[in-house]
Specification:
mainly alpha; 3% strand; 805 residues; two-stranded antiparallel sheet; elongated; two-stranded antiparallel ribbon
């Protein structure tokens, strides 16, 4: 039998023509250059305005309710809806039913579980380790999302787990998963936090990307290179330890240029010029040793974490990644490579998302809600047909874009010149400080030597002064006695003893006078030396002060660097806008060239139309086809076949049997109890699904954001896996069991399609399924379960099931 598959990701011209008859066009071609988003409108309306503002050609119609209900469940809960949920939604005639369903799912418990799974894949690259228990890590992510923890706070905790005041916090898994190795941390923080994979700039400036420099890599490295992992000898807990010292020198293997010291610098952000300094005794809050992990008085890693929220590149990266998590592809793609030659497909939209996300405190729930409320998200995957094109409007758009292109290029070039100007000013300031840094050491050494000499001269002068004073003290009483003796002899001239004493006194007085003359000369000499030493200190201090006066303050350096970065940002936006205009011009020309190609060469026409539709998809005019992630595929197959409910029941029972310890806390409210229980159930749900999901990850897993490519092994797995075959069993609560209980072959198609494909069966499918069962089973009722299992298997392995459309 032929179960009608969903169209493949590569849409042919023939498929477009077929679907043209059933697709209505949501908006006609129009010149949209004067209809930018309005600031006071809700974000989802501004998203649509930004998409329409850059659109070339028609927009795809909104998707059907059946497509929407499947898409929204997959994107907000990670699993297709149950057949009851599909039926309920399709039966609802209220005009606001899509918005109501969105709110229900975003506020539901599965939202936190699904986005925890996505963050787990994003942050760990599907790598496993044993340093932090996986279940504890998943619980941390679920709890963070369920409690609406801002995304910037989550990333701050990943970089600086000590900020949580819990040494055992599962947040430490992000860095410990990299073994806390500085280069591994630098690469992945650059990729995931800033959207810049600078690994190839580790040994030299990036050979392909002009915007990535070795200095950028080591600026980020300087925040992280003091961090290592530490195992507590008593508890055996593995934590992060950080030193208070450690520089980040580098040298290019190509040019030999580099720096002996690199100041910490956030990618495309300001340098940490004002890092505080401490004495050796004050450098640590906890000094690292065999018993303790190091905790410096100033943590560079903490400084990096605190700078995230204000860093434009972090904000752009997070906004781009949230868009990619929902739409399957970033506005900058690959998401790890933000640079000038890889601009966003819609710079206006990315700027809008970036600013709005920051204004709303990095609220994931808010951002996702606004994205899925947009018409852009809700458009059909089926593009408008060629015959719906308004070629006259496309020509008008081409003329307008061509006239606009030159001023855009000129504006971008002018800003590039300003970039160079502000860079020169900033670099000259840095050069001044480099010159100061070069001049200071010999002067400081000279100053230290002169101060030492002055201290020595001061000590020698003091000794000379002390010696002279001692002689003076000795001479004074002798001079007094000598004077008295002379007076006595004048009165008693014939006293021989007095005369003898006088001779001795005069001799000793003369000796002391000579000694004092020598001591005074030495004192004067020492005084001259001391004066000269002090003068040398004053002169050298003046020289040091003169050099220091040239040094640019950290505040001024930051001001100059931020001024430069501001112009860089504006230049990047202007360049991206100019590149978008060029892409729009090329798309206009491709559309205008298409009719002639279609008349002359059908194969070239198919390729040309595919390129046009691909560009429409990138621009948001057509919804993308997204392959289900391994986690979505496994959970959805279990949902379709009726086995997911068993896991949900088991998860609930496990939590009821062993309630979370947090429920025992005094004064806990009923609301908090409900939230704690809900988080525990979702964590246990992941644990229940782990075995099956890991099998799918082993076959279909890749890095977050990678393109899907089917393989032979995947086909063999779906055809021969005991797990998948078990899901096709005819038990009472399984899909095959329920279908087997339905006697009429004609009544099977709808429940089958609703359960697996989230839509009612078409008339052709109803007829083919009934014919298949009649021909295969006949009068042998024992063959019926196997035939039904074959039908279910065919559907869950079809393109329509494999893709989110």
């Amino acid at each position: 039998m032929n179960i009608l598959p969903m169209a493949s990701p590569v849409r042919s011209f023939l498929a477009c023509a077929i679907f043209a008859s059933i697709c209505s066009i949501a908006a006609p071609d129009r010149l949209l250059a004067d209809t930018p988003p309005v600031a006071n409108e809700p974000l989802h309306q501004r998203i649509d305005a930004a998409v329409e503002h850059s659109a070339i050609g028609p927009m795809a119609a909104l998707c059907t309710d059946a497509d929407f209900v499947r898409r929204i469940y997959l994107d907000l809960t990670g699993v297709i809806p149950s057949h009851e949920q599909v039926e309920t939604f399709l039966a609802d005639d209220a005009p606001d039913k899509r918005a109501r369903l969105i709110d229900t799912l975003i506020e539901g418990p599965e939202f936190a579980r699904h986005f925890a799974v996505q963050l787990n894949v994003l942050l760990l690259d599907r790598r496993t380790d044993t340093t932090v228990d996986q279940k504890a890590w998943e619980a941390y992510l679920i709890d963070s999302i369920a409690r609406r923890k801002p995304l910037d706070q989550i990333f701050q905790e990943l970089i600086d787990p000590s900020g949580t005041d819990d040494p055992a916090t599962p947040a430490r898994k992000f860095l410990l998963n990299r073994d806390a190795e500085p280069h591994a941390m630098t690469r992945d923080v650059g990729r995931m936090v800033f959207g810049m994979d600078m690994q190839c700039a580790q040994c030299h400036d990036h050979p392909i990307i002009d915007d990535y420099y070795q200095a950028d890599y080591y600026g980020l490295f300087a925040f992280l290179n003091r961090t290592t992992k530490f195992t507590d000898p008593k508890s055996k807990l593995i934590v992060l330890s950080e030193k208070a010292e450690g520089e980040a020198p580098f040298e290019s293997v190509f040019t030999g240029e580099g720096r002996e010291t690199t100041l910490p610098r956030v990618p495309w952000g300001a340098t940490l010029y004002d890092e505080p300094t401490f004495s050796a005794e004050e450098a640590y809050q906890v000094k690292p040793d065999k018993e303790n992990a190091g905790k410096p008085s100033f943590s560079r890693r903490e400084a990096l974490a605190k700078r995230l929220s204000e860093n434009e590149q972090f904000r752009r990266n997070i906004a781009n990644r949230v868009w990619a998590l929902v739409l399957g592809r970033g506005l900058v793609h690959p998401t790890d490579f933000h640079y000038a030659e890889n601009p966003p497909v819609n710079p206006e939209l990315l700027a809008l998302l970036t600013d709005d996300l920051a204004q709303h405190k990095f609220d994931l729930h808010y951002a996702v809600r606004q994205i899925v409320l947009s018409k852009t998200y809700q458009r059909s995957c089926e593009p408008p047909a060629p015959e719906t094109l308004n070629l006259a409007d496309i020509r008008s758009r081409l003329d307008a874009l061509t006239q606009r292109q030159e001023p855009l290029i000129a504006a971008a070039d002018q800003l590039k010149e300003q970039v160079e100007t502000t860079k020169v000013v900033w670099q000259e300031a840095l050069a001044v400080n480099d010159e100061v840094a070069e001049q200071l050491p010999p002067l400081e050494e000279k100053l230290a030597q002169s101060r030492t000499a002055a201290e020595k001269a001061t000590a020698e002068h003091a000794e000379a002064q002390k010696a002279y004073a001692a002689l003076t003290q000795r001479a004074e009483p002798i001079q007094t006695v000598l004077t008295a003796t002379k007076a006595a002899i004048e009165k008693v001239a014939d006293e021989p003893a007095l005369k003898e004493s006088l001779v001795l006194l005069e001799k000793r007085s003369g000796e002391l006078a000579a000694e004092m003359t020598t001591a005074k000369a030495e004192l004067d000499k020492k005084m001259e030396a001391l004066t000269a030493a002090k003068k040398m200190v004053e002169t050298t201090e003046a020289e040091v002060a003169t050099v220091l006066a040239k040094r640019i303050t950290p505040e001024r350096l930051t001001e100059l660097e931020l001024a430069h970065l501001s112009v860089v940002s504006e230049a990047g936006k202007a360049d991206a806008t100019a590149r978008l205009a060029q892409a729009q011009i090329e798309l206009c020309q491709s559309i205008l060239d298409y009719p002639a190609i279609a008349l002359s060469d059908s194969e070239k026409a198919e390729v040309a139309w595919e390129a046009i539709v691909n560009r429409w998809t990138l621009q948001g005019q057509v919804a993308p086809l997204k392959p289900l992630t391994p986690e979505q595929l496994a959970a959805s197959a279990m949902q379709a076949t009726g086995f997911l409910a068993r896991s949900q029941t088991a998860a609930q029972a496990a939590v009821e049997k062993t309630p979370p310890k947090a429920l025992e806390a005094e004064g806990i409210t009923d609301e908090e109890k409900a939230l704690v229980t809900q988080i525990a159930v979702q964590g246990e749900m992941l644990n229940q699904l782990r075995g099956s999901v890991n099998q799918f990850v082993g076959q279909f897993g890749g890095l977050s954001g990678e393109e899907f490519q089917a393989t032979v092994n995947q086909a063999l797995f779906l055809g021969n896996s005991p797990t998948v075959n078990n899901w096709l069993a005819a038990a009472g609560d399984t899909l095959v069991g329920r279908l087997n209980a339905t006697e009429q072959p004609t009544a099977i198609a709808d429940p089958l399609c609703l359960a697996v494909l989230s839509r009612p069966a078409t008339l052709d499918e109803q007829r083919e399924i009934a014919n298949f069962l009649t021909e295969t089973v006949g009068e042998e009722a024992g063959k019926r379960p196997a035939a039904l299992a074959e039908l279910v298997w065919a559907m869950i392995t079809s393109n329509e099931f494999r893709f989110n459309h």
